[in-house]
Design goal:
With 182 residues, this protein is an alpha+beta fold. 20% of the residues lie in helices and 42% in strands. It is globular. The two termini are 33 Å apart.
């Protein structure tokens, strides 16, 4: 596959926000020509599938400004600098939902938007939950909801859950509950 790779000739940062950066590269493509590539650098994130003893999952409703809409999602959050994503998952689960989990299982890593970002999200199954108190960050507004997995799958199939990380989490959850993965 090396014959498909591009050689980076130069890189310049064109935007730096609080946690996102945008870079612009000049690259030499396999055809020998020079092209411009722009992409977002993201610190990475973790998403949790919090499974309750009754078989339901803990999810959140959260407004997402970029698309100007409230979404039903699995809880997730960005990684702090140098932080392992399991620690991110534990921190974000408590902050967003008020739950802690005694049992954690790594599922997979996803790259949700490879066309313009290096973002990766590590997905975890969180079990043996204990309800404590939600610890939202300032400016964070989240409603915690309990959802039956069958209802979640129906919402995904109807196109009512369009968040890609949540869709992927729903399919992992479905496989787990069917005993196709442990």
């Amino acid at each position: 596959m090396k014959h498909l790779e591009e050689k980076t000739l130069s890189t310049r940062q064109i935007f730096k926000g609080r946690y996102l950066k945008i870079e612009q590269d000049q690259v030499q493509a396999p055809d020998g020509r020079t092209y411009t590539r722009e992409y977002i650098l993201h610190p990475g994130a973790a998403m949790m599938i919090p499974l309750l003893p009754n078989g339901n999952v803990v999810m959140i409703h959260q407004y997402r400004h970029a698309v100007k809409k409230v979404f039903l999602e699995f809880p997730a959050g960005k990684r702090d600098h140098g932080e392992e994503t399991l620690l991110t998952a534990k921190r974000e689960l408590l902050e967003e939902t008020g739950y802690e989990a005694k049992e954690w299982k790594f599922l997979t890593t996803i790259h949700p938007v490879i066309g313009y970002s290096n973002e990766h999200i590590d997905l975890y199954l969180a079990k043996d939950l204990i309800q404590l108190e939600q610890r939202l960050d300032q400016g964070e507004f989240i409603e915690v909801v309990e959802v039956k997995p069958a209802d979640l799958m129906q919402l995904v199939l109807e196109g009512k859950v369009s968040d890609v990380k949540t869709q992927i989490g729903a399919f992992w959850l479905d496989k787990f509950l069917r005993g196709e993965w442990n």
